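Recall that a protein's primary structure is simply its ordered list of amino acids. Everything else, from secondary elements to tertiary packing, is in principle encoded there. The following example makes that idea concrete.
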Amino acid sequence: MKRNAFSQRSRAIKFHVFAQIVATATGRIFLSNMRAFLVVRLKAILLLFVAVPHAVHFVRGAETDRRPPTLRDVRYGEHDRQVLDFWQAATTGPAPFVLFIHGGGFAVGKKEDLQTSTLKQLLSSGISVVSVNYRYYHQAPLPAALHDCRRALQFVRSRAAEWNLDKSRAGATGGSAGAIASMYLAFHAEMADATSNDPVARESTRLTCVAVTAGQTTLDIKWWAENVPGWPADEGVKADVHAARRWGVVDDIEYRALVADASALHAITPDDPPIWMNYAMAPGDELPADSKQALNWKIHHVAFGVALKKRMDEMGLEASLNYPGSTESGRDSSRNPRYSSLTHFLTSKLVEPMKER
């Protein structure tokens, strides 16, 4: 009896140990699969609004000869992300300035993403440069990131005397999400509050010019479904998903009002500044076969630029649209001149007019 009981206990212990081993292995497999699933989902989410690398002029890469900022991590707000770097151009008089806004879907990216070659060209042309961080949408729902960029612009203007800046000559540039924020500043009505007790809030939010790459001129997902080649038609009815995830709202009317206020295509008026736009594909190009490339291609499609240019042409505003094979032929050269690059456009608008005076 004792031997039988001992045998039963022994089998029970072995079974318990075996069960623990199976449970542990199963748990590890589950965690591994879950981790892989989350990584895939995260990558898919971050692809939204992340600029096509070869279409954007701002990814630093491996660069070692970068000039350090004149002022680094200057706070324009209380949040850790509300900081900027400032490079002062070597000019005798007050210099124009350009605000660089990084891309990354309002979820990743940093002010250090400004490409060294772009920085060098602007500084050598006598243009001071500001590179700004802003809060990600998971830290503060949109349009907080846009409001941060607005505040940064006003903050820089408030330092004009101290930083030797001409606050009347201001440009903005960025790719993808940075393009959205740049165009928000360019095409939104004046947002300065002349009655505010805060001197920064009294500064202007208007720009002299804006230069963007791979920019979404509207954040209306329904418009995407109707106008972007290959974009899923059913995405247009999923606005509530995009609204809750990025904008923190569930009411459709509130969501669409926020989107309209943040989108250049809906905000354009006859008094708005000139824009230079660059995209990596031509209007008639075929969708890439690779699924990841295709998604990135659609998110940053030239259709966004075509729509904005059409609207600006109708209003008599200057809009330079560039893509592979574009010639800008048939345009009024006095209103739509050809620019060789983003920095050529910014220099033409911020520096050349002063030389002609």
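Confidence is low (pLDDT under 50) at residues 1-10, 12-19, 21-62, 329-336. The radius of gyration is 25 Å.
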